[in-house]
Amino acid sequence: MKGPWFARNLRKWAKAYIEDRDNLPVHLYGSSATSRIDDEGFAAEIQLHLQSIGKFIRALDIVHYLSDPEVQKRHGLKKTVSLATAQRWMKKLGYRWKKEPKGQYSDGHEREDVVYYRQHIFLPAWANLQSRMRIWEHNNVNIEEIRSHTTRRVVVWFHDESTFYANDRRKLRWVHIAEGAVPQPKGEGASIMVAHFISADYGWLQSPDGKETARILFKAGKNRDGYYTSEEILKHTKQAMDILDKYYPDDEHVFVFDNATTHVKRADDALSARKMPKAPSQGWGVEVTVTNDDGQPLYGPNGKPMKRKVPMAPGRLHDGCLQPLYFPEGHLKAGWFKGMGQILEERGYDKEWVRKLRAQCGKNFNCLPGARDCCCRRVLFNEPDFVNVESRLETFCRERDFSVLFLPKFHCKLNFIEQCWGFAKRVYCHYPPSSKEVDLERNVITALDSVPLESHQETGEVLTKVYLALYILIILEMALISIILLVRKMMLDNRCFS
Question: What residues contact residue 243 under an 8 Å CB cut-off, 6+ apart?
Fold first, then answer.
């Protein structure tokens, strides 16, 4: 379809032909015309202007930009372009009118701290456990390979949550030509969240007869069961540990959680230099939410959660001794918080140097990259006891001789329970639709029970091999770097000797 300009010309040509039968429009075959957008400098300026606007740009932005007299003077324009021209230029600049592309993962999985945790903590820990895990024959997952074990066998339990919706049903099917349209329900409907543990050894975490299970059905929402907080995670983990202690006491159990904030949450009084004052302070403590016996927050008359202050837990000196952060009884400032300056002095830092050191860099703790002693807060952040603070979940499990391993951030899909959720949801979508929560709960449980143990073992075996392969690659990479550094040193030594 042509635009308004072509329509005006047709009208003009038609009137001219009616008045003079010899006045025919001439088409200049073989002639070429170049567009202004083909000028690289002009196109780059338009592109730069569009980038300065942000994500949601329009072709009309080009029209408005070229309406500026200064822009017209700079490029020799007498007027701006039409909207149709601007739309054609958008295509030439590489833009397309379509839905925003979606990716599965965030780019943060290659962040420096994430890479370090994955390479130096998670994968080595997994490689250490792998030698004591069960493995199955490649062609038959029902047959376990015989391996000699001098210690207890390790069973890894993966934890995760998933939500099932009442209106989550099949959308494609054979529809008869005579079948009429049926109104579809709005929204996703009633929902139920499932939290569970699974292993390649035993499947879903439950007793051998299936009567006791670690499965949690949770109706998330403000006016329902609330939200799945860290308190709920601890209760769920306790339920899992009780079952394992009762029915599987001969195995060594390891829980694997993703790196969600509810999982890695530290104790309320855990060490943190984030808000510490540098000088001694009376009444300083950690502000925590007041909760009832069930761990639920208590609310004040204003509708907001009630808060109270508690003392921060003591630190640990380099020799392993505890370091109280508050002055003891009998001191002139008994009960006062010591302040970062005093804490650093007790750790052996020079008194004069600490006094000259500022509390933190800038209002937002903006230390230069790689800095370690630029301010009191940064020095404390790098102290071993401040760095290696356990999460509540780790402490809770360690007290009962269970281990915890967190997946690297942004790597939640490495959790093979995701494949089991997918299997269960595929089965769930075939059940008759119902908005009743009783039917929803029954369908969810039936779908989860339909996941066969063989699929757990196949997926777990593949995942174990992937983890081990990554760890081997890390070792090879470190060996290669060491060889390169050694060769470089030998070359320098030979050059100096010559």
Answer: 205, 206, 207, 212, 213, 214
